[in-house]
Write a structure and sequence with these properties.
By secondary structure, the protein is mainly alpha-helical. The protein has three helices and no strands. It is elongated. It starts with 21 loop residues before the first helix and ends with a helix. The chain crosses the membrane at residues 64-81. Keywords: Membrane, Transmembrane, Transmembrane helix.
């Protein structure tokens, strides 16, 4: 939603929003109010089922082995290069 603010003369730099013209002050206060999301829509509440399904996919595609090889090589290189 776009709000159109009419052109008007402003006083030099305002130290706070109370010195702004009424139209701008209302717009400023309206836009500066915090927004809060109090709920969200959950399509599949079975979190443990999702974790199990994703873990099975992670293992079946071989990504778990790539992770383990990467960790071992990382520790080996750290031992050789580091310290």
């Amino acid at each position: 939603m776009t709000q159109v603010i009419p052109k008007m003369e402003l006083t030099p730099v305002a130290s706070n929003h109370t010195e702004l013209p009424q139209e701008l002050r209302h717009s400023f206060l309206q836009q500066s109010q915090p927004q809060m999301i109090i709920a969200q829509q959950v399509n599949d509440p079975d979190i443990m089922g999702q974790i199990a399904t994703n873990w099975k996919h992670f293992v079946s595609t071989g990504q778990v082995w790539a992770l383990l090889v990467g960790l071992v090589l990382g520790f080996v290189f750290r031992g050789i290069i580091g310290r």
